[in-house]
């Protein structure tokens, strides 16, 4: 089977022997620059949110993934070319600021990220 060189493949390995009752998951991103992946602000923010939730003593609910909670920062908003509008219309709006080079940079949150973060504690 030949791989398409433009597609990034994800390989999942699971180890259920580490700690009784717990599972360890490792995600392998093929065709990704592994050295610079920790410099990704989105990856580090998601990691920070999950770690913060896990150690927070007052956490009352399970961790909410990005797919369910929507964007938290302006950089999470992007332009949906298929629909000719900003993606996540319930959270993001088109708001041009001088210096925006492409449509995606003009998509910004409707509310502040501090307000949104309080919903997930």
UniProtKB/TrEMBL annotation:
Domain of life of the organism encoding this protein: Eukaryota
Protein name: Uncharacterized protein
UniProt source species: Vanilla planifolia (Vanilla)
């Amino acid at each position: 089977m030949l791989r398409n060189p433009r597609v990034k493949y994800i390989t999942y390995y699971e180890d259920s022997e580490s700690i009784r009752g717990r599972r360890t998951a490792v995600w392998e991103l093929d065709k990704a620059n592994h050295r610079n992946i920790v410099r990704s602000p989105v990856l580090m923010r998601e990691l920070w949110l999950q770690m913060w939730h896990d150690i927070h003593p007052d956490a009352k609910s399970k961790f909410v993934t990005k797919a369910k909670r929507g964007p938290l920062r302006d950089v999470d908003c992007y332009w949906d070319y298929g629909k000719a509008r900003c993606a996540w219309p319930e959270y993001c709006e088109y708001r041009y600021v001088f210096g925006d080079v492409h449509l995606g940079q003009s998509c910004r949150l409707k509310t502040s990220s501090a307000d949104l973060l309080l919903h997930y504690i």
